[in-house]
Design goal:
The chain is mainly α. Helices cover 48% and strands 0% of the residues. The protein has helices at residues 5-19, 29-35, 39-44, 60-66, 70-78, 93-99, 105-111, 126-132.
């Protein structure tokens, strides 16, 4: 076995390659924290892609809207969450908030430039969803 500067560099490169995220592997920690409604964990996960998607296409912002967690949504928006990301059903966070009686969430997402006409192909717009539940 060789020793010296070259083998030391090879060891470091191999170690870094082994600890790097694998291609195609999603880091779901942020989505999982949002799903648990754990604002502290979302706040701590600053290096995780704020727009990462779960297998169904949902983002952390979808979960913040589902949980009607305005503090989490504000944190995600400040970190660059895409307002119009859609899951596999074509549902946006605004659509989720509208169907979840998110009275504070809906205006916040609209202020952050969520696109109101975006609607899944199988259902109505966020406005129609909100009206259907009496909001």
């Amino acid at each position: 076995m060789r020793s010296g500067p070259v083998s030391g560099i090879c060891f470091i490169v191999c170690l870094l390659a082994a600890s790097a995220p694998q291609a195609g592997v999603r880091d779901l920690r942020l989505i999982q924290a949002a799903q648990r409604d754990d604002v502290a964990a979302v706040k701590a996960l600053t290096s995780v892609d704020v727009n990462a998607r779960a297998a169904d296409g949902a983002t952390a912002l979808h979960w913040a809207a589902h949980n009607d967690d305005l503090a989490m949504a504000n944190l995600l928006i400040r970190r660059g969450a895409k307002m119009d990301a859609v899951n596999e059903l074509g549902v946006t966070a605004l659509w989720v908030a509208a169907g979840n009686s998110g009275t504070a969430m809906v205006p916040r997402l609209l202020d952050a430039r969520a696109n109101p006409p975006l609607a899944p192909p199988t259902d109505g717009s966020p406005l129609m969803v909100a009206a259907r539940i009496g909001n």
